[in-house]
Amino acid sequence: MSIANITIVITSFKSEKKIRNCLNSIDKQCKVINVENSDNQEYKKRIEDEFKNVRCILSGKNIGYGKGNNIGLKEVKTKYALILNPDAELFPDTISNFFKMAEENSDFAMIQPSTLEDKKKFKSFDLASTSRVWDNGIELDIKLIKSIRGHALFLNLQKLENIGFFDENIFFFLEETDLAMRIFKSGKKIYFCAPIKIFHEGGKSHENKINYEMELSRNWHWMWSTFYYNKKYKGFVNSFIMVLPKLISSIFKYFFFLIIMNKEKKEIYYQRFSGLANSIVGKKSWYRPKV
Fold first, then answer.
1. How far is CA 243 from its chain centroid?
2. By the 8 A CB rule, do 76 and 84 touch?
3. For labelling, which of 40, 126, 151, 277 has a CA lying 20 to 30 Å from the CA of 235?
4. Residue 25 and residue 19: Cα distance in Å, rounded?
5. By C-alpha distance, which of 10, 5, 6, 23 is closest to 57?
């Protein structure tokens, strides 16, 4: 299968240093759409000048991971798309193994690769030689799943036509879990394929100088998304019962760190409380990192 059949979509936010490693790992013949969650024209020019296979779209502001990916996915003209985080990197056989998997399992909606956190441990693998037991079998190299991790997702776009892409109400966290749940509920298939590997640094997609602000944002959005996602599928009452211990804990820890004058921890638990409270009362996911 030709590399012309795939477009890679990368949503970034202040990731210029990290994304270069990602882009350098991609075959220069492969089409790439980079949605940058800002209005940084200089960034767009530098990336497109350096990487001729990359089209950079500026969203204008920080609109979130799911909405950014949706902008990119709507521009894709190829049969397949690969959602990739800016702090992830491909190995030499990653794309070819995705294609081999797709050729033998054309019914898939999504394929999840396995993740290496140490590039030195990578060993090339010919997917054509692996065992294939898809449903309730004894082999675990390739299996059907319904829960995913969002840093690398291979999508069969035709299978998603009646499902849609990411829920744009979610700014960050659980947007890929929500998409997987909709795929699962529609009866479509998601495969996990261990022999297909990517490298993912994890939590390193932005510049180090904004780490604390991003940590505050992560805590707010994790709590907001947790209640929103569960309410969507389990209803308000069940979700409220589930998050109540988290709500109480965040209040207790806020006052504890206030008393011992730990400003950073106090602010983190305030954001956790605020994210949950806003989600519970039905407010939109409005918080944005102050960067």
1. 23
2. no
3. 151
4. 10
5. 10
Question: Widest CA span of the chain, in angstroms?
Answer: 62
Closest CA to 174 of 227, 217, 248: 227
Model confidence over 162-193: pLDDT tens digits? 999 999 999 999 999 999 999 999 999 999 99
> Could you tell me if 18 and 201 are in contact, meaning their C-beta atoms sit under 8 angstroms apart?
yes
- Phi first, then psi, for residue 232 (nearest 5°) are -60, -35
pTM of the shown model: 0.89
Is residue 15 a contact partner of residue 46, using CB atoms and an 8 Å limit? Answer: no
| DSSP secondary structure string for all residues of 114-138 | EEES-GGG-----GGGS----SS-S
On whether the CB atoms of residues 207 and 14 are closer than 8 A, the answer is: yes
- Hey, which residues does 112 pair with through a beta bridge? 192
Among 95, 78, 80, 31, CA closest to 57:
31
- Kindly tell me the burial class for residue 204, based on how many C-beta atoms sit within 10 Å of its own C-beta (0-12, 13-18, 19 or more): middle
Whether the CB-CB separation of 152 and 146 falls below 8 Å is answered with no
